[in-house]
Specification:
The protein is α/β, with parallel strands linked by helices. It has a domain at about 20-95 and about 175-280: P-loop containing nucleotide triphosphate hydrolases (Rossmann fold), CATH 3.40.50. It contains 9 helices and 10 strands. Strands 6-7-8-3-9-10 form a 6-stranded mixed sheet, sandwiched between helices. It has a 4-stranded antiparallel sheet with strand order 2-1-4-5, covered by helices on one side. Helix 4 (about 130-140) packs antiparallel against helix 5. The longest helix has 16 residues, at about 185-200. It is globular and about 45 Å long. About 45% of the residues are buried. Mean pLDDT is about 80; it is low at about 1-10 and about 245-280. It binds adenosine-5'-triphosphate (ATP). Adenosine-5'-triphosphate binds near residues 52, 54, 55 and 59. One of its GO terms (molecular function) is ATP binding.
Amino acid sequence: MIESRPGAIRNGEGQMEPVIALTEVTAELGGRPVLRGIDLTVAPGEAVALLGANGSGKSTAVRTAIGQVPATGGERTLFGTPVRRFRDWRRVGYVPQRSTAAGGVPATVREVVSAGRLARRGLRPLGRADRAAVDRALGLVGMAERAGDSVNALSGGQHQRVLIARALATEPELLIMDEPLAGVDLASQRVLAGTLRALLREGTAVLLVLHELGPLEPLIDRAVVLAHGRVERTIDQPGRAAKGDAGAAAEGCPAGLPESHPCHPADESEPSAEAELQTGIL
Ligand SMILES: Nc1ncnc2c1ncn2[C@@H]1O[C@H](COP(=O)(O)OP(=O)(O)OP(=O)(O)O)[C@@H](O)[C@H]1O
């Protein structure tokens, strides 16, 4: 999957270029140090979870990675370009933590999701490809039936789905979601897992801030645990660690899989991604 992925970037030695690379990154908020030297990489097609206690710096790490929080030290790149020079934002989909879809402005679900195409089409009217991407994103999160409704009439979990759909409509190569499972029921979490599995198979890189892995556990290639603004530890393939190598091999992941070849086995305890996508219930 990774080797044949279109648009994959390689450095001079033919190595896969990470889509996110943070090296010894430090950051402050309100004059206080929040990130105290973070190293984090996410490769194309890889799913990385940021874990840690409240206030450990997960959201700040993500926001620093995409330039929303200035770094006070260290190196940050997106797709191999220093973040301060990066402009290709259509390659990045970001679902922030606990935000609302329209901030009280009257807008329909479709309008909010269509905003995800802005980075691609600028101010030009929606074309056929744009409309198809919006429809696909609405279907993936099970909100197609609500496309014409005002976002102000949605529940918290439905808001979350619309924000995810807006990010998916961008058709990003890197999808970042900050606590996508918060306030989302278990059935919807499983559908989100199916959606992510499909994106990972297509080569999308995924960075998630999570408090627990839940149904996403089999998809995660690496969990990075933060504590007090530092990386406390890194767990490769936490789903396999929980089950043991034999368990992973039984699911189709060769034991000792190198990080550059992440594996996203189908979890037979859950409906397949395709089945989930057909149900469209998130
Ligand atoms: N705007 C701000 N001004 C000052 N300090 C802030 C600001 N935002 C966050 N902080 C502080 O930065 C630290 C890290 O916050 P951050 O939101 O990154 O943590 P988190 O790991 O994502 O937490 P949670 O699990 O609660 O979402 C916390 O101590 C928080 O109080």
